[in-house]
Amino acid sequence: MLTRSDPVLKLENATVGYNGEAVLKNLSLEIKPGEKIALVGQSGAGKSTLLNLLYQQCQEDAALVPQDLGLVRSLSVFHNVFMGRLNRHPTWYNIANLLKPLKKEVDQISPI
User: Strand locations in 1-112, DSSP E?
Assistant: First the structure.
């Protein structure tokens, strides 16, 4: 069982690249349950590359909403995030939840 001191995600000396070029080198990162993090940096610093790496490490527990590319501006944050999780449930469940969001789904996404 995971304790509050056990990391939910851990990277040690990772090198992350984009288009064949190393963007982040010797990256070590540990995220514990309940921690909230923010990625801040100039354009091209590797924020999106790092987010993609983090998503690859924890796809079962995370949804990725890509910057601009995947957002539907006319939808709520809930709907945009839930759309990134459609592969987790049957089609009938997704349609019902998108039309009238279930409390348990809203509660899972709201803290994001």
Answer: 9-18, 21-31
